[in-house]
Amino acid sequence: MTGENEMAKITEAQRTEVSAFLKKHTTLTIATVDREAWPQAASLFYVSDDALNLYWVSGEKSRHSQNLERVSRVAISMHNETWDWRDIQGVQIDGQARRLIDPDETDRAWALFRDKFPFTAEFVDQIARSSFYTLAPKWIRLIDNSKEFGHREEFTLP
Question: Are 81 and 89 a contacting pair, CB within 8 Å?
Fold first, then answer.
């Protein structure tokens, strides 16, 4: 277990473990802060790429989108559903989020989304009126109680 003061760079094995978790799950919770520094959370479908970047679609007028336009630092978490403490697994990520502007980046995010969520073909018009956002992780905590109670590994990314 890596402690708060002992964060290391991510290893290839850890990257593989985090990537597998991200690909297996569908929904993240994003935490942003509003103009008065009040925290706000929103749940969103997401996709990830091999570099562990996360992507989601959202309306530019949503609270979390407006918040991250002002303060790009966000925290995200995702976890599995369970009633047994031994099955608690999850990932927490801190980093910088931004709206995608480059058409090539947007096309790439859209392709990842269609691959993971084929039902999005039914909502092309709605998605076209929305924006894609991305998060580049700077810090990751991997939680896995199946290894031991309270097991966590923390690491940074360049």
Answer: no
Pairing of strands 152-156, 8-9: parallel
Q: How far is CA 6 from CA 3, 12, 101, 154, 156, in A?
A: 5, 18, 36, 8, 10
Residue pair 52/129 in contact by the 8 Å Cβ criterion: no
Pull the structure tokens for residue 26: 């569908």
- pLDDT tens, residue order, the chain (158 aa): 444 445 678 888 888 999 999 999 999 999 999 999 999 999 999 999 999 999 999 988 999 999 999 999 999 999 988 898 989 999 999 999 999 999 999 999 999 999 999 888 787 777 777 899 999 999 999 999 999 999 999 998 87
